[in-house]
Structure formats: structure tokens, C-alpha cells
Amino acid sequence: MRDAVSFRGGWLAAGIGLLLLFPLSSPDAFFLDVFTTGLLLAAFAASWDVVGGISGQITLGHALPFGAAAYACALLTSLAGWPLPLAVAASVLLAAVVGAGIGALSARLSGPFVALLTLALGEIAHEAAVGNTLLSGPGGYAWGGEGGIPVTLPWQDPPPFSSYYATLVFLCLATYGMLRFSRSRAGLILRAVAGSPITAQASGVPIARIRRLAFTVGSAFAGAAGAGFALHVGRATAVDLSLELSFQAATFAAVGGRGTIVGPVVAALVLHVLFQGLSLPSSARVLLYALTLLVTLRFFPGGVVGTARTLASRLGRKAGPRPPRPNGRNRNGEGTP
Amino acid sequence: MNENTLLSAEGISKSFGATRVLSGVTLSVAPGEPVGLFGPNGSGKTTLVNILSGLLLPDAGTVRFDGKEITRLPLDARYRLGIARTFQIPHPYPALSLHEALDVAVNAGRSKEGGGSGKDGEGPVEDLLERTGLFNQRFVPCAQLSQGCLRRLEFARALACRPKLLILDEIFSALSAADEGDLTALLRAANRDEGTAFLLVSHNPPLLKTLCGRILVLEEGRIVRERTK
User: Which residues of chain B neighbour A323 with C-beta distances below 8 Å?
Assistant: First the structure.
């Protein structure tokens, strides 16, 4: 057991170490931007996993809390003149409220109905932000449109790599927070609801409330990533609310392993850096994401982490009984807590 | 309603489309009373159980428990109130171990997400695992359990809230003689030692006669007979 923990810890330390050392390779501005955006997307993908993986509510509107926080951050700093920390805190809070609202609307739904509802909500917000359908027109008011709304930053020439390292720290903290949540009793109850809602309800779990909690927590983290993204690119645009972004998060989670938090983080980083780093046009990237998703669902339905766990479990059975985890939650069979 | 009534249902009716499944069913269960519910297939037993446990709303009629009207109270709230049910076909959590499944049942009712009255911690979970003979398999995923173990798990889950009333829907069906014997002993112990009343739905008249002091016979959506020991 100690070996397994140190093995996982070793991989984690190696990954963080590589990311810490990456700026030493003197990357150009383009690659630094690709990596920084990848770190933010990784946090966003993990936040999708809280909703779509842990609680099993497949959302296709996860860009809504992300974009809402990005727009709130931009509007509060540039139009309202709020101090940046206050604007970011308010943006995250707004994302959580948006998530609670989506959760309340979708709590009694399941499966494709959740996906359709969240898709519709996300698209309404996206169209509103683009300003083509609801808010523009002759004499109308377009609040941003394709160009977006700028974020007023309190600094002008930040030190090199400061944005990258700040984002890396944010990703580590956010991932740790989401992992803690997923391994808490609330996380266990969410996994129960995802596995069998009727048995969970017959065990005293108010499933509507617990699903709303998942949307609220996942959306708060998505909002933090959205605010971070607005700070990084310097503006909030309609792309922050796009279906493509929601689809990307779902793809990262499926490829990395739904319900694992760490899997989507790794998948988001690797796939984004790979596809974006190749400077492919947007349409080609969408195609590649779709192909990756199809291959994963067909051949590795558990994603990278799920497949690795299955293989490790098979190898473990061949090697003999495995001792339990220290918290007594060994899912492989033997031992005492 | 008698003061010494734990659960009472009055004039329960339910239709699905043009099909009338229950027609003015009235029944009561006293605290600690073992009651059987017998009837042929399609007589409305499971629909009645679903209404009594909060899974379905009746078209007409009222359900009262411990003096409170609970007709519109959902399944989870009734569990926290002390009405626990098992399912004819268990729906286990595929990714959770037995220990985790019971942890949910023991603690969901009392956590912020739930808010009920179960005890916290590992103790009650271990106790339930011991009582139901599942302790050695506590870390096995529910998806890998045999039918007999799933029924035991259903029973343990129902006991987790220290219920005042157990509603058991065909819990003895498709069990080996050994499993049936063990579950019978567990049910008797819960009734004798903790004063837990139960409403046992079964197709097995000898079993009902052995376990229940009173047997209600449901036919075509009506209680047509009541037999007392």
C-alpha cells in the first residue's frame, strides 16, 4: 500500500516538477500561452468532472458558469471599477449561484435530458453574449459581441512567467480542493446517487439537493477557472460561453477517466498542448477532439485512469491479495480498514 | 385512527392511464406489529408498497405515520422519519463497495445533505455488516455480489436508519434455503429486539404465516381478506 501511495505521489511530484521547470526551457510567448491556457482548461475539466463524473449529471453547458465568471470579472473591473480580488471573488460566487440554478432546474432529470437542458441553457447564454439574437440590432445594445469586454488589470508589465506560475498554483490548489470534495462523505453520496438514484433515495439521500450541491461546487471551480482565463487573456468574450468549451471539458473528462478528477486534469493538459501547440485551425481541433472521444469511448470506456486501474487490478489479482487503503475504502476486496 | 397505530393508509386509489390498480385500500400497522401482504401477480402489491414508502403519489387517499400525514412526503424523507423499504429487484451502486453503500445509508440521513437521525461513524456500519453476515465481503464492489448477498445488503441498508417500520417487497424471493433462513432470523430479531414493525410482501403463504401476526390479502386492488393468527 505504501508502495502504491508513493508510486502515485511520485508521478504527481514528477508532473508538477516538469511543469515548474517548463519555463527554464525558454519557451516563446506562444508556447507559454498554450501551457497557461492548458492549466486553466485542466482546472475547468476537473470542475466538469465534479458534476459529470462524480455525480453523473452529464452537462453540456459547463461553459455557462465559466463564461459568466469571466464576464462578471470583466464587467466588475472595467465598468464598475471594483478592485480585482473583490471582482474575482464575486465572479466565483456568481458562478456558484449560476451552478445552483442549473442544478435546481436539472436535479430531477437524468441522462440525456440533463445534457439537453444544459446544452440549451449554455447556448442561450452564448447567443446572448454574441449579441446577435437578443441584445443587438438597430439601436440595440450589444454588450461585448465577438470582441468581448476588457478586464482592467491593476498591473501593466507583470514579471515574466508570473501568469504561468500563478495559474499552476491555482491548478494545484483547485485540484486538491476538488479531490478532497470527491473523497468526502458528500462525494461518496454523490457517487451513490450517480450509481443508483433510487437506492440512494431509499437510503435517505435527498437526491435533488445533493445534485444541486454538485452543480454548485463544480460551477464555483469552473467560475474560478473562467475568472483566471479572463485575467490571462485580458478580456471576456463569447467564446468563454461556447458549446465547444463545454464539449472540450466533457472530452477531457472522458479521455482522462470520469470521476477521477486527476484524469481530466492530465488529459486536458496533454490534449490541449498537443492540439493547440500544433497550431491547427479551430475546425481541425474540434474534429480531433471528437475523434479522440470516439476512440476513448469505444476502446477505453474508463478513460486513461480507469483503464490503468483495471490493468493494475488484474495484475494485483495475479500477484496476490492487496492490502486496504488507509481509510478502509479499498474497492478491490480484501483486508481490514 | 387508533392511537396505537404506527402507519395507516385510508382510501388509497391509484390508476395508470385507464388501468385502475388500487381501489380505496385501507390498512394499518401497529408499532412493532408483523404484518404480511399477500396477493396474486398484478393485484397491486408493489404499487401499494410504492405509495406507502413514498415512491409514488396516490390519486386519492391519505397515508399517516406516527400521527403525521405523510401522503406527499418523498421516499428519502420517509426513510429519515423511520420508514425503510427494500426493493423486489435490488438496484446496487455498481462502483461502491458494500461498506461504502452502508456508509451512505447510515450517514446520509444525518449529514447536512440529509439531516436525519442515524448514528455517525464506522461503528454502525461495522455492526450492520456483522449482523447481516457481510463483514468479510465489506470491500467487495456491490456489482460483484451474489443475489443472496444483495438481499442481505438491502436488508442491512433498510436497518441502517433504525426504522420503526420496515416495508419488505419480496425480499425472500429467489433465495437459497440458507439465505432465507438467515434473513428470517434477522427479521425476527429486529422485530423482537428493537420492536421494529414490518409489512412483508410475499407470494409464500407458509412464510407469511410463520412470520406475521396478521396477513392482508390484496386482490384486484382491494383488501379482500384479513387473517389473524
Answer: none
Q: Is A124 exposed, middle or buried (0-12, 13-18, 19+ CB in 10 A)?
A: middle
The complex's ipTM works out to 0.90
What DSSP line would sit under B88-155, residue for residue?
A: SS----TTSBHHHHHHHHHHHTTSTTT---PPPSHHHHHHHHHHTT-GGGTBSBGGG--HHHHHHHHH
Please report residues of B whose CB lies closer than 8 A to that of A107: none
pTM assigned to the model: 0.87
Instruction: Select the residue of A198, A203, A331 nearest B104 (Cβ to Cβ).
Output: A203
| pLDDT digit string, tens, across residues A91-127 | 999 999 999 999 999 988 888 999 999 999 999 998 8
Residue A195 has its nearest CB partner, among B84, B95, B139, at B95
- Interchain proximity A196–B93, CB inside 8 Å: yes
Residue B104 and residue A188: Cβ atoms within 8 Å? yes
- Burial letters B31-63, b for 16+ CB under 10 A, else e: ebbbbbbbbeeebbbbbbbbbbbbbbebeebeb
The helix or strand, by DSSP H or E, that contains position A184, with its residue range, turns out to be none
- Quote the CA–CA distance of A43 and A114 in Å, as a whole number: 22
Q: Which tens digits make up the pLDDT trace of B57-69?
A: 999 999 999 999 9
CB contact under 8 A, A198 and B91: yes
Chain B: which residues have CB within 8 Å of chain A? 53, 55, 74-77, 79-80, 84-85, 87, 90-97, 99-101, 103-105, 107-109, 111-114, 116, 118, 122, 139-142, 157, 160-161
Q: In this predicted structure, which of A133-142, B142-151, B171-180, B216-225 has the lowest mean pLDDT?
A: A133-142
